[in-house]
Amino acid sequence: MTSHTIHTQFNGRLVFVGFGSIGRGVLPLILRHIGGLTPQRITIVTADEAGLGCAEAFGVRHIVQPIKPDNYRSVLEPLLGLGDFLLNLSVDVSSIELVKFARERGALYLDTCIEPWAGGYVDTAVDPAARSNYAMRHAALEMRKPDGDTSPRPTAVLTHGANPGLVSHFLKQALLNIARDTGVEVSEPSTREEWAALSHKLGVKVVHVAERDTQVPSIPKKVGEFVNTWSVDGFISEGSQPAELGWGTHEKSLPADGRTHAYGSGAAIYLMQPGAATRVRTWAPKAGHIHGFLITHSEAISIADYYTVRDGDTVVYRPTCHYSYHPSDSAVMSIHEFAGRNWRDQPEKRILLNEILPGGMDELGVLVAGHSRNAYWYGSQLTIDEARALAPYNNATSLQVTVAVLSGMVWAIENPQRGIVEPDEMDYKRNLEICAPYLGAVVGEYTDWNPLCDRARLFPEDIDLTDPWQFKNVRV
Fold first, then answer.
1. For 314-360, where are the E strands, in sequence order?
2. DSSP codes joined into one string, 117-177
3. Which of 384, 386, 381 has its CA nearest to residue 364?
4. How many other β-carbons are positioned within 10 Å of the β-carbon of residue 325?
5. Which residues are CB-contacts of 246 (< 8 A; sequence separation ≥ 6)?
6. How far is CA 120 from each of CA 116, 128, 337, rounded to the nearest angstrom?
7. Cys-Cys link to 402, which of 26, 84, 125, 192 (CB 3.0-4.6 A)?
8. From first to last of its 476 residues, what are the pLDDT tens digits of the chain?
9. Are 304 and 366 in contact (CB under 8 A)?
10. β-strand 309-311 against 314-317: which pairing, if any?
11. Among candidates 300, 360, 353, which has minimal Cα distance to 325?
12. What's CA 245's distance to the chain center, in Å?
């Protein structure tokens, strides 16, 4: 018997592609909360032997075989069929090809980001726009187009971890809280158009995914080592892509290094420099005013797109949205060293788990700003001590991701024929219900802070005093 809530039943097989820090952290949650899914019906396909002690501890079969363009079908076909689930937690494996493959096999699918094949993020032979998340998201959503087959498609959940993923559900709850607190009478939206209209009515200009990680290792970072609280390869990849942000209708001018896209929704722009070289101002309740990295993430684009209000072909309203990430201090030093090596990986990589000292926290939420009460942060404040007590093989950062992977899987199992789905299109209440027990304190807090507050005027600055929430004020 178990004391853990069984959220759903699943009678198919589960195949992991990739078994890094997130795969190891989510396995015990899946076995706790998805009924009928025994270790004997789970297979892990991974590129190396790292973390296989976790698989062995739970009695789960594992295959060490890097997935590549020329072998993914031969490796996965014997493992995946009608009614099964493909959980893609890999790096350097094309998400689009795995979505297509899962669809062909009649299997459900979930990933935490849209990945290209190895080298796709940093291929200098192609234009930076082609290495953007905007381009990858557009290509993934193109698979929704009719191809003559009108039958229902197996659910494929794109980009559902903590962020992208969980933060989209935080945002919907935040908007309802702001409406309540500002006296805006509104029925709970049930469509994309209604959610966008609510954000417009509230006057929201900006959504920051504002995160501060204060976890500290007991063994300090060494020179020549990249230390992080989640995937090192994943952080290096996204930090090397162009900085990207959803581009709001309140913005007065495009940055000098900003570029637009000539196709798709037009919801985002990119900058002609890596996200790991771009810093932005934001705020979180515990951290206060921070400078974060503008790391490209799919939620910056999908949120801006989802909350767009149109009058015919004219965009009437859209919020600016981007990630503002202050990782652990060890990761900040690692990124600084990585950039100083001209964006070449350090020879050693370390993901923090057991060697984290007590007391640190990952504070992750959405800062929703520009409305009548200025700004409101809503999200999770999860300490390393709480994370260790809640689930094995997790730290505070990974648990926010792994429980969102779990909730996305549960939702997909409960909604098995929805085709390709983004987090913004899912049931936010169901996901928050599943995630809440693992998120520590979930809080909402208003603030008078804006990007012009406490600005040290050591040198003249090109700032806009008439609208604090212009991106030129946010950018460092």
1. 314-317, 320-326, 348-351
2. STTTTS-TTS-GGGGSHHHHHHHHHHTTS--S--S----EE-S-BTTTBHHHHHHHHHHHH
3. 381
4. 29
5. 207, 267, 268, 300, 301, 303, 304, 305, 318, 319, 320, 321, 322
6. 5, 11, 22
7. 26
8. 358 999 999 999 999 999 999 999 999 999 999 999 999 999 999 999 988 899 999 999 999 999 999 999 999 999 999 999 999 999 999 999 999 999 999 999 999 999 999 988 878 788 899 999 999 999 999 999 876 666 789 999 999 999 999 999 999 999 999 999 999 999 999 999 999 999 999 999 999 999 999 999 999 999 999 999 999 999 999 999 999 999 999 999 999 999 999 999 999 999 999 999 999 999 999 999 999 999 999 999 999 999 999 999 999 999 999 999 999 999 999 999 999 999 999 999 999 999 999 999 999 999 999 999 999 999 999 999 999 999 999 999 999 999 999 999 999 999 999 999 999 999 999 999 999 999 999 999 999 999 999 887 778 888 999 999 999 999 99
9. no
10. antiparallel
11. 300
12. 14
Tokens at residue 359, please?
Answer: 């007391």
Q: Which amino acid is at 106?
A: G
